[in-house]
Amino acid sequence: MTDFHQNGNVATLHNLRTRSSEEMTYELETFAQSRKIALILPCLYSELETEAMPRILEELSKVTYLHRIIIGLDRADEAQFRHAQQFFKGLNQNHIVIWNDSPRMKDLGARLEALGLAPMEQGKGKNVWSSLGYLIACEDSSVMAIHDCDIVTYTNELLARLVYPVANPTFPYQVAKGFYSRVGQEKLNGRVTRLLVSPLLIALKRVIGDRDYIDYLRSFRYPLSGEFAMRTSILPDLRIPSDWGLEIGVLSEAWRNLAPKAVCQVEIADNYDHKHQDLSPEDANTGLSRMSTDICKAIFRKLAADGTVFTPNVFRTLKATYYRCALDLLEAYYTDAKMNGLTIDRHKEEQAIELFAENIMRAGHTFLENPHETPFIPTWNRVHSADSKFLADLRSAAVADEQEFSSLV
């Protein structure tokens, strides 16, 4: 995107194609001499077998400004963990693979459970939270970044642009959110952002009125991107959702804890493509169906915490308003795609809209039936208050796993 539009709520840092990646990398190397930079990669073992991961490793091996890389590994047995350690040996940086399913990690999980502080479910949220705990325990990084491990269009310029706003000591930003266009296989992608989040926020504004939080979320060009960077001083107080509302949850935490001028969004790629989730209309607990419900609940919870009163009538009106807004936006997406030589299957897009409309009602019903539901994982400050040795023990367990299982299969 080569415009220079600012929305007035959060700063938008564009890629105007006027600066080389090499020049930016040189600056990051300079910043990193006094402000160490870490990268967290939350991944499933199955992602090691995709075309994306070898490309990501090849690109990361060229990065010279990273102090450490933390790989959070989910759904792996012992043999797979050993293989993962060998797989990531190609990284030139100090790095560690955290085996989240190891006996040591399960023992730590039981310790948290006894304190009533254990994450409610497995998934990306818990993976990110555990990796953040390890990073906090290391006490040696000023900046951290997270990105997904299924990016088939990955380049190390993406990482450089992502971390630069929070690594530059003259910038005021504590959080940087990545954005990009979603085009692949001659199609317009990004269904959940296009067909759920954007029209839902428009509908919420019409139904419940102006809210600063809604305007804040609407300011982000890609609020569901999995790429963000932060200054590590804010991590101990960060509340991570354990469900699929992670990305919206992190933005909500930035809204709760920081001034708007401390948050920015940054254009990190001309194009971005990754693994696409199934719509899963037949199973509300998987795929985009589950994701859409969790995202809706995350938004409803935050608005309720800010004083919005929700009732069954509000959700019925919201569903109808959303449906009309989504169809209007679909027309805009269709003409935009056609003008750029891309395709949109209007039938499948409308099917997605119909599913999302039902899931707005499902999320609303769940919210009203369980108003005290708190899917957030406790902050690391709270864990430290309850068990002052836990962070050190988490780090020790990860290192012990690495040493014990480092031999070849």
Question: Which labels suit this protein?
Answer:
12 strands, 14 helices
Write the layout of secondary structure elements.
Elements lengths: L10 E3 L7 H12 L4 E8 L7 H9 L5 E9 L3 H10 L6 E6 L3 H13 L8 H15 L4 E4 L9 H12 L7 E6 L2 E2 L2 E2 L2 H18 L3 H7 L9 E4 L8 E2 L4 H12 L5 E7 L17 H19 L6 H28 L6 H24 L6 E2 L2 H7 L3 H15 L5
Parallel strand pairs: 1-11, 2-3, 2-5, 3-4, 6-11
Antiparallel strand pairs: 5-9, 6-9, 7-8, 10-12
Walk me through the structure:
With 409 residues, the protein is α/β, with parallel strands linked by helices. The protein is 49% helix and 13% strand. The protein has 14 helices and 12 strands. It has an 8-stranded mixed β-sheet, with helices on both faces. It has a two-stranded antiparallel ribbon with strand order 7-8. The chain has a two-stranded antiparallel sheet with strand order 10-12. Strand 3, helix 3 and strand 4 (94-99) form a beta-alpha-beta unit. Helix 7 (191-208) packs across helix 11 and helix 10 (287-305) crosses helix 12. The N and C termini lie far apart (46 Å). Its EC number is 2.4.1.266. It is an enzyme of class 2 (transferase). This is Glucosyl-3-phosphoglycerate synthase. Keywords: Glycosyltransferase, Transferase. GO terms for molecular function: glycosyltransferase activity.
Shape assignment: globular
Helical stretch tally: 14
Average of per-residue pLDDT values: 93
The share of residues in extended strands comes to 5-15%
Order of helices and strands: EHEHEHEHHEHEEEHHEEHEHHHEHH
Structural class: alpha/beta
Low-confidence stretches: none
- Secondary structure: helix percent: 40-55%
Q: Compute the number of strand runs.
A: 12
Report how far the terminal alpha carbons are from each other: 46 Å
Strand order of the largest sheet: 1-11-6-9-5-2-3-4
